[in-house]
Amino acid sequence: MDTAPGGDTVELRVHGVSGGTAEKILDHPIVDRVAGDGHAGFYRPRPGAGPAGGATAGIAVEAYRWGALTAGTAVRTASMLLLLPFMLSNLAIRLRPASTDRSALFAVLCRLLAGTLTAAFVLSAVGVTLDLVGWQCVPYHRCRDGRPYLSWLHALPMGPRLALLALVPLFGLRVIWRLGARSARAFEGFGAPPSRPQPFRVNESLSLPGFWDDERTPAWLRRIHVTIGAGTLDVSLLAGISSAEGVAGRILFVAALGLLACGGVLLCLPVPATPRTVRRVLRPLSGATAAVTLLSLGYAALARDIRLLPGQLPGYEGTVGGLIAAQGLLVMVLALVTVAPRAAGTRPFLAGLGMPVVAAASVTVAGALAAALVFRVADFLDRGSVPGPIRPDPSDTAPLDPPVAYWWAALAGLAALVIATAAASLTLLVTRRRRRRRAARIVERDYPDVPARETNRREEVREAIARSRVAEELGPILITFLVMSSLGLATIAFDVIGIGPTQLVGRLTAEPEHATLLTAYVTDGGVWLISLLVIGLMILAFRSYRSAQTRRTVAALWDLGDFWPRTVHPFAPPCYAARAVPELAKRVSALGARGKVVISGHSHGSVLAAATILQLPPDVLRRVALLTHGSPLSRLYTRLYPAYLGPRTLCDLGDRLDWRWRNLWRDTDPVGGPIFDPSEGGNVACGAPETRSVDVRLRDPSSLTIDPADTVPPPLERHWPYHTRTAYQTAVRDLAARIG
Fold first, then answer.
1. Which residues pair with 580 in a beta bridge?
2. Disulfide: which of 18, 196, 209, 483 matches 556 by Cβ 3.0-4.6 Å?
3. DSSP state of 635
4. Could you say which DSSP state residue 714 is in?
5. Dihedral sign computed on CA atoms, order 466, 469, 475, 477
């Protein structure tokens, strides 16, 4: 089945995000898998069933379907929504500027920030179990009455109760470990291991062997993050029973702090080059983590005479505030290091602020998830009465007061939502006239003589071109994210000293009663908005579990976020390109040994195709050509990822292929665009005359008038399909002819 009519030349199609089925890629109703498996496979039309849609005479067509790597299983896709903060932290380091003189510092800061996300996850679970349930609810009969699932905990002394509830955060830590490890099994083992292990380098190039290894670094980081998570739980538990005096408790508390310090130090070190070094470091660390955690649980279970203090679990609010302060400090340092003058290199997009902005977004999302979880559990436990400082409770009622940091997160979330909406609307409004003028010039050039009866059709095309230019307006949107993160960082000082929004307003106003009441309502509104967004994510996760169509929609976002290997947070969804790129390289090498290969990459598939070519050996490259269509390589990726897919990388890609490269694009395409042509918006300059033949612009639609043999005008094709145009077959034929 691996051979098919069409001579010794193969057109290998690679789809983009949410690419659909193999039948859609091949534009053929009957296909057979000729290589790969159900997660990712290579397909051809069944022999005798006719050629693929858009096939070029004499050239066999094959499709690589990789979309099931992210949308293939319901559990994997639904769990990805819960791991969103971890994914954003991994994505942040890939947005770094192209200059490599500070790459190591960028990696250290991003990894430390990722460590705080793991601590924040554990603290949110601690806030629900140890604080709200064990400390603030169970001791009060009005909270536990009518709840047999909580009443039995009252029979336990406080120490054993907290020790038992501490198992829940440990279980949650194990679950997120399991989600990442289980999902990675479909992606591991496809890349050939390097003949000689090399130390990890943050300034890696896509052409280096082992770049797509997504197991060695996560395996190293995974143990460290478990240590951080367990240490966070141990510190919270021991601080909660601090009223029980004892030398053993103090020693364990110092040991738990030592675990956190050890984890932070290890995050600053490079990944060891050999498994032996990894084992020599991680085995003692794992043993110490297990020992301190077991001893802490045992100490809490044996603790007696713990004095119940009103309010929150002792030390919990200070821990949450200190963690948010550490996150804010790391984000600010990352932003300052990013925008500081560099010795060489061009000024990156938005001064390189994409990295700290996405890092801050990961912190913001993690804070929103934690705040929504804690507030909704508190709301459930106090039977619908929203807790707050202006609503005094009876003496025999549970306080159920979440930390001040989460109140500020709710208020900042409400302000951020308003600012984001206003900024997006303003950006579209301000740029609309400019985009329309550019679209009008394009329409006049493409359709100079338009009958009067086709005026409406011409306006429709102009609007389509104008709307497709929104991708160029990323600047204000990213600036909005920066403003959003700044709003959250502005509350750090208040978190540390324990002043909430209502207390602050009460101190600053002449009439504290009215101002405090208004602030409380606004803050409660922010809490509910954040909760509704999180509930929406949960509903989307459930729909992903039940509906294949929703699963593909969700996976389309993860196709963009999980493209890069995990070098910052090990609990993020695994990198699907760790399988796709080595698998493509292996298949192209096998096909190239028997003939010519034209790799046809659509949209994000063009990025996979480019990464594959950069991994091919020279003897295979002589038999390969590249056709990209609807490609965001220059329009988006060069700007967002200058260190990995910048102009130098694309020029190197063309040189490797001896410029056997064609790029098809349309003005109506909201994603793709030119790569090298500066007159059409391409922003890559190589100085090679061959670049002039790479970009091929397609007029869309092909005509404004109705063909006499048709009943409707030609459709607007925008981003898909490209293979139905004659220019596509011409490009495939010309590229195949240029292969030696």
1. none
2. 18
3. I
4. P
5. positive
What is the C-alpha to C-alpha distance for residues 425 and 437, in angstroms, rounded to an integer? 19
Cα separation, 499 vs 508, in Å, equals: 12
Structure-token pair, residue 418? 């308003």
Highest mean pLDDT among 173-187, 544-558, 633-647 belongs to 633-647
Using the structure block, give the residue that is written with the tokens 């208004």. Answer: 518
DSSP code at position 137: I
pLDDT one-digit tens code per residue, 128-141? 999 999 998 888 88
Cβ(537)–Cβ(59) under 8 Å? no
Residues in CB range of 212: below 8 A, 6 or more apart? 191, 565, 575, 577, 578, 581, 582, 611, 615
In three-state secondary structure terms, 93 is: helix
Query: Per residue in 232-259, pLDDT tens?
Result: 999 999 998 875 557 888 899 999 999 9
Record the tokens describing residue 62, joined without a space: 């094959």
Rounded-to-integer distance, Cα 437 and Cα 347, Å: 28
In terms of C-beta density within 10 A (0-12 exposed, 13-18 middle, 19 or more buried), how is residue 473 classed? middle
Alpha-carbon dihedral 702, 706, 711, 714, rounded to 10 degrees: 20
Q: Which two tokens stand for residue 200?
A: 């990890």
Residues 6+ apart with CB under 8 A from 523: 388, 407, 410, 411, 414, 500, 501, 502
Contact 573, 183 (CB under 8 A): yes
663 strand-pairing partners = 628, 695
Strand-pairing partners, residue 600, are: 13, 627
pLDDT category at 532 given cuts 50, 70, 90 is confident
> Whole-angstrom Cα distance, residue 579 to residue 587?
12
pLDDT of residue 390: 45
